[in-house]
Write a structure and sequence with these properties.
This protein folds into 5 domains: 397 residues, TIM Barrel (Alpha-Beta Barrel); 112 residues, Golgi alpha-mannosidase II (Immunoglobulin-like, Sandwich); 78 residues; 218 residues, no CATH class; 92 residues, no CATH class. The strands form 11 sheets. Strands 27-28-31-34-39-41-43-45-47 form a 9-stranded mixed sheet, with helices on one face. By secondary structure, the chain is of the alpha/beta class. 23% of the residues lie in helices and 23% in strands. Strand 18 and strand 19 form a beta hairpin. Helix 3 packs across helix 4.
C-alpha cells in the first residue's frame, strides 16, 4: 500500500542509551525487500524533551501490553538496570533489603520521568498502562494492600501512574484478561461427561477447551468462579489507582473467537461461519434455560448431551434465541464490571475495542454477504446494546502497522476494511462514545539478529545468551510505516469516526518510538478539539481531496480540515461568518486586507461583503502535508462552510498516482497475466481503471486513491496480476498434460509458442477424424454456433446445418472444445438471440482438459476449457442439446480424460468445465436403442456404463433436464466432496460441483459412487437413480423418486450409504 517515493526519507527516534557500545541495524522486515540507509546522525538532547503542547479536549495516547522493567518502557527509557536475571541476583546479594527496594524505586522514578517526557514530546495526553496480560502471573502489577499504609509499592506501574497523574496525563489500566491461574478445574472430558464441574468451554464433541498450558485460552466466563476472578481484578485496580485524579478506568479487549484473539466472549474458533463452536457446558445451558424458560429436550445426565445440545441450537428459531441471549449475557457481564469499578469512584469507566484483525475474519465478511455488526452479534457482541451501558464504551479496532508472518496485516487489503468499510464504521457510530484503536506495532520474537526475520516465532537459532528478555529477540527492532504513512490510519480514524478517544500502540517488548514527530503534526491539533461530535461538511470524506468537519455551539464554532491522501494538498476553504477564523491552538487570526495577505500557520482571512453585511465570506488557505490536519475556531455560532477547492497535484505525486493504473492496465492487456482473474474480476478491474482515470482527469485525486486502494482492486492487482505475471515471466507458456489422439496413451508436453499466439482463436476441421476443433475463444467472447456455421460455410466442410425456422443446428461431426496448449476455450449454446436454440449432434462433444495452471481469483484454474448451455442469470434462455445415436451410447458429452498408460496404470485428468442452466440434454430419438452416452476417447477397455463420463474440475447443472441416456454419464464427478480450503490469497474457496433442481429421467444412473450431494432433483423412470460402485456416500435433500426400476443400490463394504432429507419416494 505504501507507494514507493523513490526518495530517501528520514527516520527519527528517541533512545535513552545505556553505557557501553551500541549498534544500529537497518533490516528489511519482509524477505526479499530491499532496505538501505544513507547516513546516520546522532544528536545528544540537552535537558528535557520539549513539550508538544497536547490539549485537554480529546484523548490520544499509546497502549503498552507490558509496563515492566524488561518491556519496551523499561528497556527503552530505563538506564543501568541489569536485565540478565542471574547478574541482577548476584548484584543484589551485596545489598540490604531496604537498599534493594530503594535502588529499584529510584530507577523506576527516573524511568517514569523520562517516559512522561516522551509522551508529552509525542503530543500524547492519555496512556493505556498494561497491568494484566492474559493471566495474573505474566509480568503483573502489584495491587495495593487492602489496609491503608504509607508504603510505596515496588512496582513500575504504580510509579508510572503517579508520575503521569502529576503531569496531567490520563491513565487507563490495560487489562487483557484471558484467565486467572488461581481458578482451575482439572476434570478430564470423561469426568465432565459424567457431570464434573469445569471452568472451560465445551465444544460440540464434548471436549473441553483446556487452558492449563496455554494462558491465552479463554475459560467459560459465565462460570461463577471465573466471573468472581475478573471482578477481583477490577476491585484491585480501583483500589490501587482510583485515588489518582487522572485515572480514567480500565481498557480491555473484546474478541469474537479464541485463537485469533484472547478475549471474551471467545465463543468461536477460526471458522467464522461457526459462531456456535462452544460452549455447550451444563452451567451455560442451565442459565439459558432459566433466563428464557426454554428447556432443551436433552437429559441432564446424558453423556452425549453436548453434541445433542449443539445440534438443537443450530435449528431456528432456537438458534436465534440462543445467540440473542448470549449478547445479553455479555452486556450484563460488562455492566457488572463497570459497577465494580464505580464502587471506588462513580466516574470510572471501561473502554473496550473489538479486536478484529484476522485476515480470515474479513475474508468471511466479504464472502458471507452479512454486515459487520450482524457477524459480531452472532459471536455475542452487540455493539449498539453494549454502548447503551453507562460507563462502557466499545470501540473500533484498526491496523496501522503490525509485524508478523507475511503478508503483514498492515499490507493486507482485507485488513484495511476495518478502516474504511462503511458498515464497520457505522457499527461504532455512537454519538458520544466514539473510540478508535489504531494498532501500531507488535514485535515479539520476530528477529533473532539483524537481517534475519524468523518465519515462526518458536523456530529460531539460539545464537548466544543475552540480557534481552527473550532469547529469540536479539535486537530492538523498530518497524513502522515510513514517514507520513505513520499517520494514515489515524487520519482515516478521525475522518470516519470523529473520535474523542484515539489510542495507538499495542506494543509488548518494543515501544513504537520513531514516528512521534510525524504523528504529533496530526494529533496535537486533534487533542485540542472539543469532545462533542463534529458533522461532515459538503459531503467530504475519504474520497474527497479534503475532509471537513464542523461543530457549532452556543457561542462559538469549530471546524477542522484533514488531508486524506499520501501527497501534499494545497487549496482553500470558503466560509461565511461575521467573526475571524482563528487557529485552534494559538488563537491567532490573520487579518487580510484587499491590498495584502499575511499568512499564519497556513491560514488566511479575506472578508468580502456578499449581501448580508453581518456574514462575511472568508477564504482560508489550506496547505496540508500528507495525512495532516488543521483545526480552527470562530468566536461566533454563525458559521457556514460553503465551498472548498484544491490545486492540481504536484507533477511528481501525479506521476506516482498515474503509475498504478498504467501498470495494472499493462497487466490486464497481457493475454497470459489476465488469465489470473475471473471474467467478472477482469471486468471489475477495467471499470475501476476507467473510473480512476476519470477521477484523475477531473482533479478528484482522493477518489482515485480510494478506488485504487479498495480491497478488491488492490488484492486482484497484487495477489494475482502482479504475482502471476512475475511467476510466468520469461515463459512462453505453462507446463501441461497433453491428450494424445483418441486411443493413445497420455504424455506430458510443454507449449513452446509465444504467449500472443497461445491466445489465437481458431475453428478447424479434421477430415480424417471427422472432428471440428474449437480453440482459443476467451471467456468474454466465447465461440458460438453461428461462428461454427460460418466457418463451415467458408471452408466448405458440409458438417454444420442450420434451420432458421426451428432455430436448429445439426452437426455431423465430433466437436472438441479446447486443448492443453492454448490459453483456454469457451463455447456457448443459447443466448438472447437464440433463447430456444436446439443442437442435434451426430457426434460426441469433448471438453478437453486444459493445461495445468494456478488458481485464478475465483478459485478455478486460470486456464479453462468450458461448454456452457444457457445463462445463470436469465431463465428465459432454455437451449436443448440432442445426441442422434444409431446405437446405444454411440455419441455423448465427455469432459476431462480417463485412460490407461503404457504401463497399465489408470490415468485421470480432472480438468475441464461444464455449465448447464435451464437446459435440456437428451436423445434425438427417445427410446432405449438410441440413448446417448459416450464410449469414445478412452484407452481403457474395461469401462462400462457408457463411461468415461465427466472428469471435470468444475460442473454446474442447475434447473435442467437430462434424459434418455445410457449408463451413468456423470461418472467421475463428486458433488459432495468436502470443500477445498481457500488458498492464502483467496477470500473464497474454489466453487464446488453443483447439481440442483435437475430432472434425470429415462436413463441408467444419475450419479454413481463417490461422495455426492444433490438438492431439489427428480429421478424418474431410471434404471438405478443412485448407484453403488464400491464407495458411495450420498446426501439428497428435497429430492423426488418416481417410477424408477430401483431408487438406489447399496451393500458394498466401502459404502457409507445414502442420507435422505425431506425426500419423496
Amino acid at each position: 500500500r505504501f507507494l514507493n517515493t523513490g526518495r530517501m526519507q528520514k527516520l527519527r527516534w528517541i533512545h535513552v542509551a545505556d553505557p557501553g557500545p551500541h549498534s544500529v541495524d537497518v533490516i528489511n522486515v519482509v524477505d526479499g525487500h530491499k532496505a538501505a540507509a544513507r547516513c546516520l546522525r546522532i544528536y545528544h538532547i540537552r535537558g528535557d524533551l520539549p513539550d508538544a503542547g497536547a490539549g485537554d479536549g480529546r484523548s490520544y495516547g499509546i497502549h503498552t501490553e507490558r509496563c515492566f522493567y524488561t518491556s519496551g518502557i523499561g528497556m527503552n527509557f530505563g538506564v543501568g538496570q541489569p536485565q540478565n536475571a542471574r547478574a541482577a541476583r548476584d548484584a543484589d546479594r551485596k545489598r540490604s533489603p531496604i537498599q534493594r527496594v530503594l535502588k529499584d524505586l529510584v530507577w523506576m522514578h527516573r524511568t517514569a520521568e523520562r517516559y512522561t517526557q516522551y509522551l508529552k514530546f509525542a503530543g500524547q495526553n492519555c496512556f493505556v498502562m498494561g497491568c494484566y496480560q492474559y493471566s495474573n502471573y505474566n509480568t503483573p502489577y502489584v495491587p495495593a494492600p487492602t489496609v491503608d499504609d504509607s508504603r510505596v509499592l515496588q512496582c513500575l506501574k504504580t510509579m508510572l501512574a503517579n508520575t503521569l497523574d502529576a503531569n496531567g496525563i490520563d491513565i487507563y489500566a490495560g487489562v487483557e484478561f484471558s484467565q486467572s491461574y488461581d481458578v482451575r478445574t482439572y476434570a478430564n472430558n470423561a469426568e465432565v461427561a459424567r457431570g464434573a464441574d469445569t471452568i472451560w468451554m465445551i465444544e460440540r464433541d464434548g471436549r473441553q477447551r483446556y487452558g492449563h498450558r496455554r494462558v491465552t485460552i479463554v475459560p467459560n466466563w459465565l462460570h461463577p468462579a471465573v466471573r468472581r476472578s475478573f471482578q477481583q481484578v477490577l476491585e484491585d485496580l480501583a483500589r490501587t489507582f482510583g485515588h489518582l485524579e487522572h485515572f480514567r478506568g480500565v481498557h480491555m479487549q473484546l474478541g469474537p473467537s479464541v485463537g485469533a484473539g484472547y478475549w471474551v466472549p471467545a465463543f468461536g474458533g477460526r471458522d467464522y461461519d461457526d459462531p456456535l463452536a462452544a460452549s455447550f457446558d451444563d452451567i451455560t445451558i442451565r442459565r439459558f434455560e432459566h433466563d428464557t424458560g426454554i428447556e432443551l429436550p436433552v437429559p441432564k445426565t446424558d453423556p452425549d448431551r453436548f453434541k445433542k445440545r449443539a445440534e438443537l441450537l443450530q435449528l431456528e428459531p432456537l438458534r436465534s434465541r440462543f445467540l440473542q441471549w448470549r449478547c445479553r449475557m455479555l452486556r450484563d457481564y460488562l455492566a457488572a464490571a463497570v459497577q465494580t469499578l464505580r464502587t471506588a469512584r462513580p466516574d470510572l469507566r471501561i473502554v473496550a475495542p473489538v479486536e478484529v484483525e484476522d485476515e480470515a475474519f474479513f475474508k468471511y465478511l466479504v464472502r458471507s454477504g452479512k454486515s459487520f455488526d450482524q457477524i459480531l452479534r452472532e459471536f455475542a457482541i452487540d455493539v449498539a446494546a453494549l454502548n447503551k451501558v453507562p460507563g462502557l464504551t466499545v470501540g473500533r479496532w484498526t491496523i496501522s502497522w503490525r509485524a508478523g508472518r507475511p503478508p503483514l496485516p498492515s499490507q493486507n487489503p482485507f485488513c484495511w476494511l476495518a478502516r474504511t468499510r462503511p458498515d464497520v464504521i457505522r457499527t461504532f457510530s455512537h454519538a458520544r462514545k466514539r473510540f478508535v484503536f489504531v494498532r501500531t506495532s507488535w514485535d515479539e520474537n520476530m528477529f533473532a539478529t539483524g537481517g534475519y526475520a524468523v518465519k515462526d516465532r518458536n523456530d529460531h537459532d539460539r545464537l548466544v545468551e543475552s540480557d534481552w528478555i527473550m532469547n529469540g529477540e536479539k535486537i530492538r527492532a523498530l518497524p513502522q510505516p515510513a514517514g507520513y504513512f505513520a499517520r494514515e490510519a489515524f487520519a482515516q480514524a478521525i475522518i470516519t469516526a470523529d473520535p474523542n478517544l484515539l489510542v495507538g500502540g499495542f506494543t509488548d517488548l518494543n515501544i513504537n518510538v520513531g514516528h512521534e514527530q510525524a504523528l504529533r503534526e496530526l494529533l496535537v491539533p486533534f487533542t485540542h478539539l472539543p469532545r462533542e461530535r463534529f458533522d461532515p461538511v459538503l459531503d467530504t470524506g475519504l474520497d474527497t481531496n479534503l475532509a471537513i468537519r464542523q461543530l457549532v455551539k452556543r457561542d462559538e464554532s469549530f471546524f477542522y480540515v484533514v488531508n486524506p491522501c499520501p501527497w501534499r494538498v494545497r487549496g482553500h476553504v470558503t466560509a461565511r461568518t461575521p467573526s475571524r477564523v482563528c487557529d485552534l491552538i494559538t488563537g491567532d487570526a490573520v487579518l487580510v486586507r484587499s491590498d495584502k495577505r499575511l499568512a499564519c500557520r497556513g491560514v488566511s482571512w479575506k472578508p468580502a461583503v456578499t449581501g448580508d453585511i453581518n456574514r462575511l465570506r472568508q477564504t482560508i488557505l489550506i496547505d496540508l502535508a500528507p495525512f495532516a490536519m488543521a483545526a480552527f475556531r470562530v468566536d461566533s455560532p454563525q458559521l457556514e462552510i460553503t465551498a472548498y477547492r484544491t490545486e492540481p497535484l504536484d507533477p511528481a505525486d501525479l506521476a506516482r498516482l498515474e503509475s498504478i493504473p498504467r501498470r495494472v492496465g499493462q497487466l490486464l492487456a497481457n493475454p497470459v497475466a489476465r488469465l489470473s482473474l475471473a471474467a467478472a474480476d477482469r471486468q471489475f478491474i477495467q471499470q475501476t481503471l476507467d473510473a480512476v482515470r476519470k477521477s484523475i482527469a477531473d482533479g478528484q485525486y482522493a477518489a482515485a486513491w480510494c478506488q485504487l486502494t479498495g480491497w478488491r482492486f488492490w488484492w486482484l492487482w497484487q495477489e494475482f496480476l502482479e504475482k502471476d505475471a512475475a511467476a510466468r515471466a520469461g515463459r512462453a507458456g505453462l507446463a501441461g498434460r497433453s491428450q494424445a489422439e483418441p486411443g493413445n496413451e497420455v504424455h506430458v508436453t510443454r507449449a513452446e509458442r509465444p504467449g500472443n499466439e497461445l491466445a489465437e482463436r481458431s475453428i478447424r476441421y479434421n477430415e480424417r477424424r471427422n472432428v471440428i476443433w474449437v480453440r482459443g475463444f476467451p471467456e468474454e467472447r466465447p465461440a458460438t454456433l453461428q461462428e461454427l456455421l460460418e466457418a463451415d460455410r467458408r471452408n466448405g466442410w458440409g458438417k454444420v446445418r442450420y434451420d432458421a425456422a426451428t432455430d436448429m443446428y445439426t452437426i455431423d461431426a465430433d466437436l472438441w472444445i479446447g486443448d492443453d496448449k492454448c490459453l483456454g476455450t469457451f463455447f456457448q449454446i443459447g443466448d438472447h438471440d437464440h433463447p430456444r436454440v436446439t443442437v442435434v449432434m451426430r457426434g460426441t462433444i469433448w471438453v478437453r482438459p486444459p493445461q495445468e495452471s494456478p488458481a485464478r481469483s475465483d478459485g478455478l484454474e486460470s486456464i479453462i476449457n468450458r461448454l456452457t448451455l444457457g445463462d445463470p442469470n436469465d431463465a428465459s434462455i432454455r437451449p436443448t442439446l440432442k445426441f442422434d445415436c444409431d446405437t446405444p451410447g454411440q455419441h455423448g458429452l465427455y469432459v476431462g480424460f480417463r485412460g490407461i498408460d503404457s504401463s497399465g496404470k489408470h490415468v485421470f485428468v480432472h480438468r475441464g468445465s461444464l455449465r448447464v442452466y435451464n437446459a435440456t440434454i437428451t436423445a434425438a430419438r427417445q427410446d432405449r436403442q438410441h440413448r446417448w452416452g459416450v464410449r469414445a476417447y478412452t484407452s481403457d477397455p474395461d469401462l462400462r456404463w457408457g463411461m468415461p463420463g465427466w472428469y471435470a474440475s468444475d460442473v454446474q447443472v442447475i434447473n435442467s433436464t437430462i434424459s434418455w441416456f445410457e449408463g451413468c454419464i456423470t461418472y467421475g464427478l463428486e458433488t459432495g466432496r468436502p470443500p477445498q480450503p481457500a488458498s492464502p490469497r483467496q477470500p473464497v474457496p474454489p466453487p464446488q460441483p453443483v447439481i440442483r433442481g435437475t430432472t434425470f429421467e429415462h436413463g441408467g444412473a444419475a450419479v454413481k459412487n463417490g461422495v455426492q450431494y444433490l438438492e431439489d432433483c427428480t429421478f424418474r423412470h431410471m434404471e438405478v437413480a443412485i448407484a453403488e460402485g464400491g464407495a458411495l456416500a450420498a446426501k439428497l435433500v428435497r429430492c423426488t423418486f418416481e417410477n424408477n426400476r430401483r431408487n438406489w443400490t447399496l451393500g458394498s463394504v466401502g459404502s457409507r450409504g445414502i442420507e435422505l432429507i425431506d425426500c419423496r419416494i
